[in-house]
Amino acid sequence: MNNGMLKNYLRLAIRNMWKNKVVSTTNILGLTIGISCSLLLLLYVKYERSFDKSITDREKIYFQVFEQLGNNARVVGLSGEEDYQDLKNNYSGIADVVKIRNNSYSIMPQGNENRKVSVDSWFSSANFFEFFGFPLIEGDPTTVLNDPSAIVLTESTARKLFGNANAMGKTVTIRVSSFDKELVVKGIAQDVENTHIPFEAIIPWEMTDSRGRSIPHMWYQASLYTYIKLADGYPIDLIRQSRNAKIAEEDPEHADMYRFDYVPLTDMYLGTSHVQFMAFESGNINIVNTLLFIAITVLLVACINHVNLQTAKGSKRALEVGVRKVMGAHRKQLIYQFLGESVVVTTMAAALAVLVIDIVLPSFNQLSGKSFTTGSLIEVGLFPLLIIITLLTAFFSGVYPALVLSSFQPSRVLKISANANLKGTKARKVLIFFQFAISLFLIAVTAIAYQQTRYINSKELGFNKDQVLTFSISTKNLSGKLRAFQAELERNPGVLSTSASTDILGLGYTNNSGEFYPKSNPEQSIRTTLFGVDHDFLDTYQIEVIEGRNFDRTLSSDSMALIVNETFVSQLGGTNPLNEKVALFNAQNEGLPIIGVVKDFHFQKLHQEISPVAFRIAPWNIWNLSVLVDKERIAETLSFLETKWNEFEPEEAFTYSFVDQKFERFYESEMRLLKAITVFSIISIALTALGLFGMVTFVIERKTKEIGIRKVLGASVLQINSIIFREFLLLLIIAAVVASPLIIWAGQDWLSQFAYRIDFGIAPIFLAVLLTLVVISLTVGLQSIKAAQQDPVKSLRNE
């Protein structure tokens, strides 16, 4: 194909677009919407799937999890120091092991309180940078954490602390609970995005307090995170088998209740939503897959519109094809011409799509929870992906019309009416059917997601999450002054109650859990979540005691007593739990009496069934304060709380959060998914309506003479409208029948991740059919009514 031929095809394409302005505008608008939406969604999917790609040897790295089987089975991400030592010393197939644990600390340049910042810090064994391969701008990855008084800052953290000055060798003060620790900056790490370990500072595991004790060893000996790196060619199955065989050997009676497993590093971001006690950056594979499906769907609907409109106007171009074939044009040349027209239209749409993306990017960021910029999208691969989408769209939306239009026979098309329908009617109906089925599916799934979201937002949790605010009290100046601080707060009429505890409600987990053994049946065990609380916890959260009593501050014996929930009692068995004693963690330990039973409550997501819970008076590790505030005095009480905080803790800023806001964050991914499905369902329906508009226009053009004759014979506007409408109505009915099983399957599959969920019935399907019917009625009705109101004399004269 020479340049002259290409120029001729381009000239013909532009001339044809100009002659058919309505069709061309409809095509370009539909493809612009389809390309821009699909491109944004695909970039999001690509970004989510790019996590941890920068980690070297990532295919050899695995994360250890601990599976508890049987009743209340769960997978726990935490492991212990003994696991780390065992993996490090006893398996030839393991090339390296690293342990890490996170915390957030206030860090400042030595003696400079004005530059104090809160930093997401991680304790780690000395091989952190060598193990993961995170790049260091300054410092040796093999030795940078060997000194217990060292710290490695990311480039952005160093800039916050020291501005443009070089931070290497400088001393920072890290505020650890009740004391300050001086550390020397021994390394500067490059800021790494797209990693499930969102570190801003790395601190050696051997860091000590003022008495020489290792802080992480004291706090995290039984709750650290362990990774292993396999030797070349060594399968992870052998490590898994060896570790689980050791469990069976050491504790044969409970060997069927526990087992170790290993998660590939490549699955850490998107594949660990089921693992509890995780402190990593994580995504949602359901959202990623759903948005990928929607991206393909929206682009498919736009392509279907293009195909329908191109083949529908085929009869208009039949004469052109016939004349060109008589003049010697080959079918191959005609295919090139029509494909070229598709490329021109798609290229114009792609150019407009870039402009649309730039305009809607802030709204997309709000929808996705990301902070994309045009620059970051270019880094992710905006233009290569745009080129790929443009070429694929041009081909798939242009190849069928090209084959259909180029197949017209001159002997036929030169004889028949220009308004005759030559080819493609059945194919167009099939494509419209697919559009209807897609729209029905998206609308129905949106309705199901909306119903479930309303359910989880309105379900009674079994405790009061409103007007309860929480904040950390594990600071240097509050140590030893907690009761005095609480007493000051409780004097204010806006403070209804306060409670100090190890854990709070709203996080979805606690820092303590384990086996509880009834003294009446030591062979039985109840896997239980343990809350360390004070005497006012149940009152502050308004958790209902349904049997027995609450903790009593005047009874010293309550410090060694338990209050449990209904699920604990049901697994305990028997008829009177108040006569029972249970041992914590080991059946040989002294039994603690149960003094009360509370009504079951949801402190975890509704994805999980209510598990056994026990409360005990916390003997140590009181880290959090919960405050129940009078809803009529929230603003003034918050101001009072901040004033009192500054009196007792002048060195730390007062930061708090409400429990109901914490619970809302439980369902951020579900809310984003609902919003995304809703937005792109509307876009898909709009594209369907746009395609219908073009199709109805051509149907009416072909039926101009028929409409005129019917009007002359006395047909009403309604009767004429029904002629056009019934064809689309039949397609909708067929689409509803085909889509319904898919809707039911998809709805049940999505709801299966919730332990507590709705029964959606046929209402979402009915709603989807109704809304699609409205769209069809408006699109078809307005066009056909307009055609029916035309003067029949003009219609017949035009024929």
Automatic annotation (TrEMBL):
Sorted alphabetically, which InterPro entries does this protein's record hold? Answer: ABC3_permease_C, MacB_PCD, Macrolide_Exporter_MacB
Q: Does the keyword Cell membrane apply?
A: yes
Q: What is its main location?
A: membrane
Going by the UniProt record, its keywords in alphabetical order are: Cell membrane, Membrane, Transmembrane, Transmembrane helix
The way it spans or sits in the membrane comes to:
Multi-pass membrane protein
Spans through the membrane: 21-45, 287-307, 334-361, 381-405, 430-450, 676-700, 728-748, 760-782
The subcellular localization recorded is: Cell membrane
Q: Which domain of life is it from?
A: Bacteria
Q: Does the keyword Transmembrane apply?
A: yes
Q: What is this protein called?
A: ABC transporter permease
